[in-house]
Every structure is written in C-alpha cells, then in structure tokens.
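tool=predict chain=A
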Amino acid sequence: MSTKEKIRERVSLKEVLSLHNEIVVYNDDVNTFDHVIDTLIRVCDHTPEQAEQCSLIVHYNGKCTVKTGPLDKLKPQCLQLLDAGISAEII
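tool=predict ok
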C-alpha cells in the first residue's frame, strides 16, 4: 500500500479567473515616454523604475502587461489610463 497522500484544493472558477486579469498597454505614436511613465506611476502605483521599464517594453515590443489582479480593481485603473490618452485594455 502506498503512503502517499493526495490532496486536492478546491478553487472556485471566479477565483481562478480573477487572478488572471491583466491591463495591457499598447504602443502608439502620440504619447511621450514621460507621459506614459508619469501616468503609470500615478495610476498603477509603479515605482519610477517599473514605469520606465514598462514604457521601454511597450516601445520595443508593442505592448506590455502593466498590472494584474481582480477585474474590479483593474477597471478603474484602465479607465484612468484611457482618460490619459494611453492605449490600454483588460485581458
């Protein structure tokens, strides 16, 4: 007989989905690096270093995930990014 114990953790579907929401920012030819960096610091609570790295990733890769979390917390942040003229969406 095996002494291995099998443990299964039950996680609701809502919990699983809420952990995988992301705000993605897309590159454009309108916004300056400074504007994007300042907005990420203000809206997403990034450190200056995080915001700068995200802006460079957006510039060179075309997009970057800037925030993850539950949908109810990401919606207001994404709306603030959009209001600031930054191309963003929640996926």
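The longest helix spans residues 48-61. The chain has a mean pLDDT of 89.
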